Structures are given as structure tokens and as C-alpha cells.
Amino acid sequence: MTTARLPLFPLNTVLFPGLVLPLNVFEERYRAMMRELLKSPEDEPRRFAVVAIRDGHEVAPSAPGMPDTTARPERGPAAGFGPDPLKAFHGVGCVADAATVRERADGTFEVLATGTTRVRLLSVDASGPFLTAELEELPEEPGDEAGALAEGVLRSFRQYQKRLAGARERSLSTGAELPDDPGVVSYLVAAAMVHDTPTKQRLLQAPDTASRLRDELKLLRSETAFIRSLPSLPAFELTRAPTSLN
User: Fold this and answer.
1) pTM for the model
2) What CA–CA distance (Å, rounded) separates 135 from 78?
3) Which of 49, 118, 148, 174 could form a disulfide linkage to 138, CB 3.0–4.6 angstroms apart?
4) Phi first, then psi: what are they for 30, rounded to 5°?
């Protein structure tokens, strides 16, 4: 397996390969990371790893009773992640390639990155101005019947999106064209479904494409049946992605 050491950007969300990640970077540890990335030549990839934070982490520590409002906030690259940051993160993440890293006048950054490759988190280093991690690349195997499963997932996803949009009869082609490649389908649908972080994390770390698609098919059928029983829901767009604050 190929290993690498990259800057580590923990988030309260899951990044999938092929998906776009907009970031509004204002914490000093991540600003330091972006300044380091900008030192790379423009013709070289500016890569960092994104991992999802486990539930219950990235919270201000407090003693029993009322919080001490006079206490100085914890600072440093591992602030909020406890004495062993490795335990604060899910074990599988995604490498991000920053196509745009733009520094604002106030020193914050506007970043636009794209997920590329799944990686397993081996170790975390908090000795520098920002977290870095030793990572092992995870190959994406197709698995059995991935093509047929992808077709079924796309059909179910169309029904799911119609239900989210209020069951209006319209084609998904009015929003975004869906791909044919089973791996791309599996990641795109995983990112687009409205689910919590643990569910999305489970999809990211599926052993192969076919396993991910089978899981998605069950989720889509279950969610569509549930949504059908509700009176109304807000519309969700396939390509809508929130800007992540850090």
C-alpha cells in the first residue's frame, strides 16, 4: 500500500472522492496550513486530507457545573481533540486537492478543493503549527455486479429526489447529469443523500463499490418510503454543497 504524510483538516462532515469542498478558513491552525500549501509550485497539487470528527469531539472542555467563562480557550493544532487526536477522528478519510486557495485581506482564506482518493488514517502528528497525518491509500475495488447495482441506485435516487422536491414531476437532467461509472455513482449518491455523518462515513469506508451501492439502495428505498408518508419537505439539489466553517 502507498503511504504519505499530508496536512490534516478535520471536519464535521464526510468528503467523498470526486466531490467539491468549499471552505471558509479562519482558525489559525488551518490558516497556517493554507499558507504552507501556497508555498507549493502552482503546477503541483496542493493536497491535504479531510477526516470526519467522531461524535462528541471538538467541544470545549468544562468542569462539572457552569463553564468557567474566564478560562482561556484551548489553542494549538490539536485543540478540542483531546490528548490523542487519532481517537477523535474516523479512521477513513479522503485526500483533497485544493484548486483554489485565496487569501483575503484579513488573513482568512477561501478554498475550493475536490476529493480525490480514500485513505486510512495511521497516525496523527500535533508537533507543528497544524495537524499532519500518516495515511495509507485505499484502492477502490468494483465488487460483484456493480454495474447493475448502479443502475438500480440511479432509479431509486431519482424517486428519492422527486420526493425531497415535493414529488413534482420533473427530470433530474434539469439540475445535473448523472454519471454512468458505478464508482462515481456510488460516491455522488452518498454525498447527495440527506443522512448523518456516521451513515455517510459507513458509505465512504465500504469495502468495495458494489457493497456501497447495495447499502445505498437499501437506504434510498427506506427513505423514499418514509418521505412518502410526510406532508411536505424542502427541496434539495444534487449539486448543493454547504460552505464548511472551521
Assistant:
1) 0.81
2) 18
3) 118
4) -85, -25
